[in-house]
Amino acid sequence: MAGTESLLFTTLGTHSDPDNSEMELDCQFNEEFKFILLPVTYAVVFLLGLGLNTLTIWLFLFRLRPWDATATYMFHLALSDTLYVLSLPTLVYYYAARNHWPFGTGLCKFIRFLFYWNLYCSILFLTCISVHRYLGICHPLRALRWGCPRLAGLLCLAVWLVVAGCLVPNLFFVTTSPKGDTILCHDTTRPEEFDHYVHFSSAIMGLLFGVPCLVTLVCYGLMAQRLYRPLPGATQSSSRLRSLHTIAVVLTVFAVCFVPFHITRTIYYMARLLEADCRVLNIVNLVYKVTRPLASANSCLDPVLYLLTGEKYRRQLQQLCRGSRSRPPRASSSLVLVSLPEDSRCRWTAAPQDSGCPTPWADSL
Fold first, then answer.
1. Which end of the chain is more exposed for a tag (fewer CB within 10 A), N or C?
2. Tens digit of pLDDT for each residue in 224-277?
């Protein structure tokens, strides 16, 4: 990218970066890589994510009922990922057209809102799965009370609404602006409001990423400590393996998709706000834009969680691939380490799925 056409010139406080935000720089900046990196990666995520999550939603709706609490969280996680990948074709066009947005300001606001809405919903749904697993392993009697699918459904609804409410200001910050013959769709806001946006973004990151990440780490730390102890029952080996799979996949998604994106974005915003050295800004900007596709990749990695932790999911997927019919659904529960006490308030009938409580001895998802 050595040609002069590959260099973007910006001047401190007067010009806009054509990608995500207004780069307050006073130096030459080479960003040709993003016109290849972002369209290609977003296109790949769109194709893989749409295929995997559409299949997952179909399985949950037609082959995996009735749901337990974990299945409820995973369905909403797949729905969130699907909504996100449906917004990617417009971004593929935007970056392939070298930062030209012909779709209007309203759709620009909606697409940017949809990215963060589904990003943080995915984080919170993964946190819900982590807490649910923690209760099933470390506090099985409490899990009988708090692990009902109806409660999980209400919690998922609360996640959708709370995240949307927190991100409403983003609709006012995000806008479009003309730049020569192109129209930019900013990921942040105008240069004169950038400091306010940084404060808003930092608060959102702490609330919707920092707190859930801490909760997830604490839950998995306590789960790992518990799994090292001997467990009664014949199913302890498969139960431990399933729980370890959950820990590994969720921590991988956080480590690969969420943590690098939030760290580099924070450093990038702070470097701009503090008007850091040009060389530092170049490096930070490059790393930040490279991690943006990683945040999108969680839409492709989340289905791995369903595959590794759900025996029933794997069984139905295998039957679908072989073209065989599914067996009548059975009530299932992910609380595989729970044993039902005789004096439990949950009483199982011939149709346990009508009770609204988990069936601890059944298959996991």
1. N
2. 888 776 655 544 556 667 777 778 888 888 998 999 999 999 999 998 888 888
